[in-house]
């Protein structure tokens, strides 16, 4: 039984949060001897009370090396905690394995594990695939970054059921043996280099999933991305490419306006509910994984023609006086914003701005050249405005807050235009999360509608 894998193991969990608590509960239930460590003080917290009731020791307020003086077989770390933590460096010297809860999920899942990773599009593709499996009559669980913590879900999945999991590079870096039945890599570009230290480490972390797979599993890869293709070619899995630019006799692609699967037509792409080439990539990947799992063509068309998108990810907010409004607050990097702009053929009034991480926005100049206007706000407002002016735009507005930006954009936009929030920056200069930023944008647009 897979559930006996951790019985009597001595496990140190570092980092509480959602994943740490889920791992602690699960491993305790499976018979492991669990100790929990949290960097900040957890005194008086609900987590401390729950752990005390379970009889799990909690050490909080730092990461003392003395924790390693006890017998420790495995460390399960919160994915967001960096590996240069002295506690982890000492554990490495002692040859103590350091994993994330995704590794546990992969080992415990009895059903078909489908894992999706990539720099962009993970959440949309995961949600699409889950919806496709359900429409196709399959029992599917959605887990990982998008849903319930993966290790918490994996225990429930039976042999004839599916687990769709969104997986980050942080999780994969700490999952040395993670081996899904179907693995999907959507794309790779520079991201999270502050965490990984180099692009090489970032790419290697993403590629670890394909590297572990065998000829019994499917590796679905974006044939339009050279780095993804290189990772796929190193895998022993059965390779299954998808492409929006090439016609493939084997794989998934777009041919004469039709989605094709193994050279057979599935649906007309003009009927697809989500705009943009990047969403077409997501659809191809999700549809291919679903059809390899036994979902029929009609179920695929039913979902892909009605799927409304994920909140804050190129989400259609509505029509305001003939202006189509989209909330893409999740676009926290340059490539996401570039792809969002490319999704539209009508004139676009763009709102962008947010946390200044020290980078420039020159790579957006070509995308900006086709815009009607840019309204820049937040810490990066001057950098973005400078890029817009270099792109030759006549209408460039600079404001301080998102509320002001929304009003300024609404004043510029006309019937037939697209008003798009796609910040190209993290939200932390003015908001705690990108969700909070997107919610405020929707709220402000609703005010504009009433006016």
TrEMBL record:
<keyword id="KW-0131">Cell cycle</keyword>
<dbReference type="InterPro" id="IPR036615">
    <property type="entry name" value="Mur_ligase_C_dom_sf"/>
</dbReference>
<keyword id="KW-0436">Ligase</keyword>
<feature type="domain" description="Mur ligase central">
    <location>
        <begin position="116"/>
        <end position="290"/>
    </location>
</feature>
<dbReference type="InterPro" id="IPR036565">
    <property type="entry name" value="Mur-like_cat_sf"/>
</dbReference>
<dbReference type="GO" id="GO:0071555">
    <property type="term" value="P:cell wall organization"/>
</dbReference>
<comment type="function">
    <text>Cell wall formation. Catalyzes the addition of glutamate to the nucleotide precursor UDP-N-acetylmuramoyl-L-alanine (UMA).</text>
</comment>
<dbReference type="InterPro" id="IPR013221">
    <property type="entry name" value="Mur_ligase_cen"/>
</dbReference>
<dbReference type="GO" id="GO:0005524">
    <property type="term" value="F:ATP binding"/>
</dbReference>
<comment type="pathway">
    <text>Cell wall biogenesis; peptidoglycan biosynthesis.</text>
</comment>
<dbReference type="InterPro" id="IPR004101">
    <property type="entry name" value="Mur_ligase_C"/>
</dbReference>
<keyword id="KW-0547">Nucleotide-binding</keyword>
<keyword id="KW-0067">ATP-binding</keyword>
<keyword id="KW-0132">Cell division</keyword>
<feature type="binding site">
    <location>
        <begin position="118"/>
        <end position="124"/>
    </location>
    <ligand>
        <name>ATP</name>
    </ligand>
</feature>
<keyword id="KW-0961">Cell wall biogenesis/degradation</keyword>
<dbReference type="InterPro" id="IPR005762">
    <property type="entry name" value="MurD"/>
</dbReference>
<keyword id="KW-0133">Cell shape</keyword>
<dbReference type="Pfam" id="PF02875">
    <property type="entry name" value="Mur_ligase_C"/>
</dbReference>
<comment type="similarity">
    <text>Belongs to the MurCDEF family.</text>
</comment>
<dbReference type="GO" id="GO:0008360">
    <property type="term" value="P:regulation of cell shape"/>
</dbReference>
<dbReference type="GO" id="GO:0008764">
    <property type="term" value="F:UDP-N-acetylmuramoylalanine-D-glutamate ligase activity"/>
</dbReference>
<dbReference type="GO" id="GO:0009252">
    <property type="term" value="P:peptidoglycan biosynthetic process"/>
</dbReference>
<dbReference type="GO" id="GO:0051301">
    <property type="term" value="P:cell division"/>
</dbReference>
<feature type="domain" description="Mur ligase C-terminal">
    <location>
        <begin position="312"/>
        <end position="425"/>
    </location>
</feature>
<keyword id="KW-0573">Peptidoglycan synthesis</keyword>
<keyword id="KW-0963">Cytoplasm</keyword>
<dbReference type="Pfam" id="PF21799">
    <property type="entry name" value="MurD-like_N"/>
</dbReference>
<dbReference type="GO" id="GO:0005737">
    <property type="term" value="C:cytoplasm"/>
</dbReference>
<dbReference type="Pfam" id="PF08245">
    <property type="entry name" value="Mur_ligase_M"/>
</dbReference>
<protein>
    <recommendedName>
        <fullName>UDP-N-acetylmuramoylalanine--D-glutamate ligase</fullName>
        <ecNumber>6.3.2.9</ecNumber>
    </recommendedName>
</protein>
């Amino acid at each position: 039984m897979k559930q006996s894998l951790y019985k009597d193991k001595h496990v140190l969990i570092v980092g509480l949060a959602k994943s740490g608590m889920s791992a602690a509960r699960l491993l305790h239930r499976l018979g492991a001897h669990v100790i929990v460590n949290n960097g900040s003080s957890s005194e008086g917290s609900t987590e401390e009370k729950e752990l005390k009731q379970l009889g799990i020791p909690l050490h909080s307020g730092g990461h003392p090396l003395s924790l390693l003086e006890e017998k420790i077989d495995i460390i399960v770390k919160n994915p967001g905690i960096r590996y240069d933590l002295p506690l982890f460096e000492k554990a490495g010297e002692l040859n103590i394995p350091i994993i994330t809860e995704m590794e546990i999920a992969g080992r415990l899942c009895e059903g078909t594990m489908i894992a999706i990773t990539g720099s962009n599009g993970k959440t949309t593709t995961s949600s699409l695939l889950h919806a496709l499996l359900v429409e196709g009559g399959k029992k599917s669980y959605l887990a990982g970054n998008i849903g319930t913590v993966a290790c918490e879900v994996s225990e429930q999945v039976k042999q004839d059921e599916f687990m769709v999991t969104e997986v980050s590079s942080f999780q994969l870096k700490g999952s040395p043996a993670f081996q899904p039945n179907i693995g999907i890599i959507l794309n790779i570009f520079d991201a999270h280099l502050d965490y990984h230290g180099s692009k090489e480490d970032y790419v290697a972390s993403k590629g670890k999933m394909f590297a572990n797979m065998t000829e019994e599993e499917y590796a679905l890869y974006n044939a339009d991305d050279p780095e993804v293709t290189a990772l796929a070619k190193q895998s022993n899995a059965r390779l299954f490419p998808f492409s929006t630019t090439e016609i493939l006799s084997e794989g998934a692609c777009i041919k004469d306006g039709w989605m094709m699967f193994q050279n057979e037509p599935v649906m007309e792409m003009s009927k697809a509910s989500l705009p943009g080439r990047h969403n077409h990539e997501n659809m191809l990947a999700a549809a291919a994984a679903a059809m390899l799992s036994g979902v029929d063509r009609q179920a695929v068309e039913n979902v892909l023609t009605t799927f409304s998108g994920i909140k804050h990810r190129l989400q259609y907010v509505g029509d305001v006086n003939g202006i189509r409004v989209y909330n893409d607050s999740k676009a926290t990097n340059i490539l996401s914003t570039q792809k969002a702009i490319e999704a539209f053929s009508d004139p676009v009034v763009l709102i962008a701005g947010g946390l200044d991480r020290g980078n420039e926005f020159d790579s957006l100049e070509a995308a900006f050249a086709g815009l009607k206007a840019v309204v820049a706000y937040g810490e990066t407002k001057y950098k973005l405005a400078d890029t817009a002016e270099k792109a030759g735009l006549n209408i460039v507005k600079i404001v301080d807050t998102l509320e002001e930006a929304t009003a300024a954009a609404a004043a510029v936009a006309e019937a037939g235009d697209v008003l798009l929030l796609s910040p190209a920056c993290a939200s932390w200069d003015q908001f705690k999360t990108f969700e909070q930023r997107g919610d405020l944008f929707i709220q402000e647009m609703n005010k504009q509608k009433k006016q």
